[in-house]
Amino acid sequence: MAYAAVTCLIETLEHLLRSPSLIFGIKSLQIEIDERTARRMKRLPLTMGKRPARIKSAEASVPPGALTAFWNMTKEMLTINHTSLWKYLSIFSLYPEAGPVKRFFNRFGRVLGFAELRLMHGESLHSERKSKRFFLVSKSQFFSCRLITKIVLLCEHLIFLLAALEDSTHTCNDHELLKHLEVRLIDLAHRTEDFIEESMFDSSVETKMLNFIIYVFQVDCNILVGRVDFEAEVQKICDKKYGIHHCLQQTVEDIVDIREEMRKINDTLVNGNLKLGDTLNDDSSLSPPAQKNEAVGLDDDLMLMSERLSRVPSRLEVVTIVGMGGIGKTTLARKIFDDPSTICNFHACAWVQVSQVYRLRNLLLGLLKCVTQLKDENCAKSNEELAEDLYRSLKGKRYLIVIDDVWSTRTWDDVKRIFPDDKNASRIVLTTRVGEVADYVNSKSASHRMRLLDIDQSWDLLQKKVFGSQSCNLEFVDIGKEIARKCQGLPLAIVVVAGLLSKIRRTRDCWEGIAGSVSSLVSSGPEQCLEILALSYNHLPQHLKACFLYMGAFPEDSEIEVEKLIALWVAEGFLDKKDSLSAERVAEDYLEDLIDRSLVLIGKRRFNGKVKTCYLHDLLRELCLREARKEKFLFVIDRRAQSFLSGIKNQRRLSIHLDFHADLQLIPSVTLVRSFLCFSLGSSFVPMFISSFKLLRVLDIIFLSSKYFPLEILDLVHLRYLALTATYELPASISKLRSLQTLVIHGPWINRNQGESPTLLFEYWIMPWLRHLHISMPCYLSNPFDPSRCPLAPRYLQTLSTIRFASCTSDVFLVMPYLRKLGICETKEDFITDMSCRWLKNLANLQYLEALKCSFYKQNAEAPRILRPSVLHFPLTLRKLTLSWSYLPWKDIACIAMLPNLEVLKLKNYAFQGPDWEPTEEAFRRLKHFLIDSTNLENWEASSDNFPCLEHLVLRGCKFLKGIPDGIEEINTLQRFELHYCSESAEISAKGIEVEGLDVVIKSEM
Questions:
Q1: How many structural domains does the chain have?
Q2: What is the pLDDT of residues 335-348, one digit of tens each?
């Protein structure tokens, strides 16, 4: 977990950069404004009868700082106010290739040199004024330069260590010295992070910064008045005897020591013909496994694989088998390899098991041993000579090679050149847990993906392992099937549980005891099961390990919402930031990688094919929890954690899985906790223990209830993620949580003073790091006081849902220009005002909007209001649109068809109405996924001219539909057509569709 500890520390250091940047930025802004104002005053005599002496004397008499009273003389001054401050509030990316000093001056050099250069050249200002202004910035200049340089220097060392840790992922995990260094690094990173954030919390730096900024941008007077508390506090916590300066300096020294130790380890490995990046072990097997595995539920797999090995293509073909650990890849390959018909069809057969770490030399020797008579002199040959021998041995023969348990593309690159292609139907079978490897090895043919066993197959395998050829006593059938079901179709889990059952007394009570805790028994009994699964975890890149272990925080058997998981990863600081990608996109890539490695399973997919929910197999979750406890990364408090009062010490992440009868007051105070997630449905909220978690970054209490908002939350100034259920109005003071990135509010809550829909009172426009705002019911957003003067507006805001139509104002959208996902809903109040069309026009201000959910007020379908087509003038950037209850005529859909980037369209609940739809010449040029749900449509036409890119079509709840358009079969890109709960005539029409490669799914009402 060293990698995660370092990335979290880097994020804390970036957070720390804001204070000196803000202080110096404000002071530099003051100088710039004063000087421009002074120059403007010099030009005033030309318009005032040329009286320079009077003006000059007036200027000389003005005390320092008083010139800011002239700010309102020009609009130019107001624009400086906005743009300059934002520049200094931005968090800059840190690049390892640039030196810390160079990087510092690249970012701040213009500002640092601004006052000096202009004051030294004496631009139109008296020396007295110059000296006072120089004193104004010189102290902050020194303070800022010293602090920022130390931060950037430390980050440079940390980024180097991240690269070194990543390099050692697959090779030096077992090196004891390296493990010791990782422990040191974790401890150092945590201590530094804790010290910095505790110092900022105890000194109320965040609160004073917020008050200062609000003051500056709401009061048109001297910009430096009121700054003293904030600046003095920052300098105090930095410059005191054992302050942040001392902490950073000590951390840099310790990091340098760790880097030197890593260099020595690398030198030692080099002297032993290894280095970081090479393997330290050799686990390759020279022969296939000796044990004989039961092949249950593999009949279809065997038939498909046999067909691929014997079919017509004469060229050399690689057949890849992909699946999670323990699912039966090796068993399937073994059955094929041992099949007598296989031996008859091939002249030479060889099996080699690669495993997690391997040496090319041993792999070559293993293959040679299978196809030739290996002699002692072969062992003395070089790798190149061995490869040549193997090539000659296979040349001209029809061969079958099984390469089992491949972990990286590098393995295939090492061996692919030694297999000759004599166009004699030779075959290579390769098994892997990593989908990327399979696709890399054979991109032309689909991989054979292993499936989990169903309940009958699971029970069949369990019986064979426990009873052998004997029949199972009827007494154990029902409980045995329950045990098999709890193994969730994973053959490895079934085999391990069967081993337990075969060694205990064969009584129903014993079997019921096993059924009660199958998952834990599999993990705590025979270690082979988890150890085999642990290979996948041990082989993970460093940047994925924390993300994988974090998934253990969710309850067993729960489907995890991908959006929530990604937001949590971002808030925790696990991500290795990349300039070209958003943090969310990086997190998506991480999840795809974990899925590709068969560690995470897909639950549901979105309409466009993206993963919506995911989950962990029970055994993999047990692996998560075991490794998380070992690393002190995460502690789950559930019914099994009887001794959590002692085990909770020094934990940084807590997850609560207790029932509603549990007393949460028993949870002790742990000041180091950074994440608190509670999945105890219905529990009463107890804020006392929350107040002790002063360094929290993540607080998820969505399953807890309270009559009032717990004010203790407002003190959690480091909070990045907050999810809660609100039965009350949220206070405006929630905007004090300036570091908040994700805010999730589940309602409904009682609005005591407003109308039917609740109003969010907090000042979201002074929350600069807010990325996602999710509200479960439509609410009204209050307008910013002056959107043109909101330097801390949530410019990172990507997701906003759900708000009323009345909140779609230009002022609201002006402070969130980069919004990508928006959910809006017309309430009864909106409907009565009849202003919806005007409000929706403001969507044009959102130049980066990609996804929009728009739901109009539900009306009587017999006499709906008439909307103008202009209501459909959405931003051209839209890629996904969901429309409900708009009751528009089908002819108006041409406005949507013209959206140039639209890929997903969902029309729900009479979004369009009318019996006939005849598409015009306007085509949905990029539409791939199309849903029509609940409408009175009877007849429509569709062809490849209208939908040239359509891949997925769903018709749902179309009770009046008379048939399916004939042109559907002409859309060559269409891959899947679904008809759910439509008319009988439509079902008959759909059953007649016979197009190769098109999946037709029909669901009827029972």
A1: 5
A2: 988 887 777 788 88
